[in-house]
Write a structure and sequence with these properties.
This protein has helices at 2-11, 14-18, 23-39, 46-55, 64-80, 83-88, 90-99, 107-135, 142-159, 167-177, 182-199, 212-225, 237-249, 260-264, 287-290, 296-311, 322-334, 338-354, 358-369. With 370 residues, it is mainly alpha-helical. It is elongated.
């Protein structure tokens, strides 16, 4: 009887099989889709368009075997359909993979689930993927949170921070590193180390409020990779065009082939991936009066507030710094107390570390003194 039932399923259309109550029928439909997608020509998009909407439910299938076959069909779809068609179901597939099939422990499902998420990153849906991952970092289900953190780490490792923006992730690290679930803490620790591998010490000020014991543990791990230079091993579609162009240009020079990917990707500036902080509003309301106080100690204390503020901020948001720079320059040029002068100079030094345009100020000051 079972064989007859299975034979009957193959007589149904793919649409009917995928929407059938019997999980074996859905398995049959998904298996047929894998064959169909692998044989289809993406220039003839009829098959992809026809079955795209039916794939939306694949990650949510209630039967584990049908779910696995459904994810295999999604994978075949993404590997063969053009980007515009795959984008149509991106929201449903990504959401399903990160909240439903991500909970499964079957090895093949875990493999396919991660593969699909990374494929959508490659298909230039990286912002959607990252947003969905981050939104689940603090999911009520620790298992979902753990796996989403793992997926983020793997995406960052393969594509780099130009694609997987780490600024919003870094903001969540302190809470996640102290999460009540040990698996969440451990996976976050690994993600933190992976972020450091890319942006190095640029991230340290942003996690400076962590408990000393956690910071010390991280510093030990950071020291192991401080000299390691990270580079992406995988590229989104638009980057692949650039990589291929460089490869073609170097095709006659075998000595350059190992450097094709490096040449095609711009060098990473760690500070590009750190969110800027607005600091001018954080200055005391009476700051400009205090830096002109009669007592040098009061002037020095006001300047030290600026230094302490800058030492905890890796990147300054745009703003009108003309008044601040003007008063610092005045102090350096005219203040009678050498301690105050040196403190003002240190303020400019801290500004220069985190805002490149302030090197111009140093040049101008140097010229004015000489």
């Amino acid at each position: 009887m079972a064989e007859e039932e299975q034979t009957d399923f193959t007589k149904l259309s793919i649409d009917e099989r995928l929407q059938h109550k019997n999980w074996k029928a859905r398995v049959s439909g998904y298996e047929q889709l894998v064959v169909t997608f692998n044989q289809a020509d993406d220039d003839k998009a009829s098959d992809f368009n026809k079955y795209a909407s039916l794939l939306k439910k694949a990650p949510n299938d209630t039967n584990i075997t049908a779910q696995e076959k459904g994810l295999a069909a999604v994978s075949a779809f993404l590997n063969n359909a053009n980007m515009s068609i795959s984008a149509k179901i991106a929201n449903d597939i990504i959401s399903g993979c990160l909240t439903k099939s991500i909970l499964q422990t079957r090895p093949k499902i875990k493999e396919l689930n991660l593969e699909i998420i990374l494929m959508y990153v490659e298909l230039e849906k990286h912002q959607l993927v990252v947003d969905e991952l981050i939104s689940n970092f603090q999911n009520k289900s620790p298992k979902i949170a753990v796996n989403c953190i793992l997926y983020a780490r793997e995406a960052l490792k393969q594509f780099g921070p130009k694609i997987v923006k780490v600024g919003p992730i870094i903001k969540l690290l302190p809470d996640l590193l102290e999460h009540k679930d040990k698996n969440v803490r451990e996976e976050t620790r690994l993600l933190t180390i992976e972020i450091y591998r890319w942006i190095k010490d640029a991230m340290k000020p942003q996690i400076s409020n962590l408990k000393p014991v956690i910071l010390n543990e991280l510093d030990v791990e950071f020291s192991k990779i401080k000299d390691e230079k990270a580079s992406p091993s995988r590229f989104i579609k638009s980057e692949q065009i650039q990589v291929n162009q460089v490869a073609n240009e170097n095709s006659d020079d075998n000595s350059n082939n190992d450097n094709v990917q490096a040449a095609a990707v711009e060098e990473i500036d760690p500070f590009e991936f750190i969110e800027a902080v607005e600091i001018l509003s954080k200055l005391p309301a009476n700051f400009y009066e205090q830096v002109e106080a009669k007592k040098w100690q009061e002037r020095k204390e006001a300047l030290e507030i600026v230094i302490k503020l800058l030492e905890t901020i890796p990147k300054i948001a745009p703003g009108d710094f003309s008044d601040l720079c003007r008063v610092l320059k005045k102090i350096i040029g005219k203040d009678a107390n050498i301690v105050v002068v040196l403190t003002a100079a240190k303020c400019l030094s801290e500004l220069a570390k985190i805002k490149k345009k302030f090197f111009t100020i140093f040049t101008q000051l140097y010229i004015s003194y000489n």
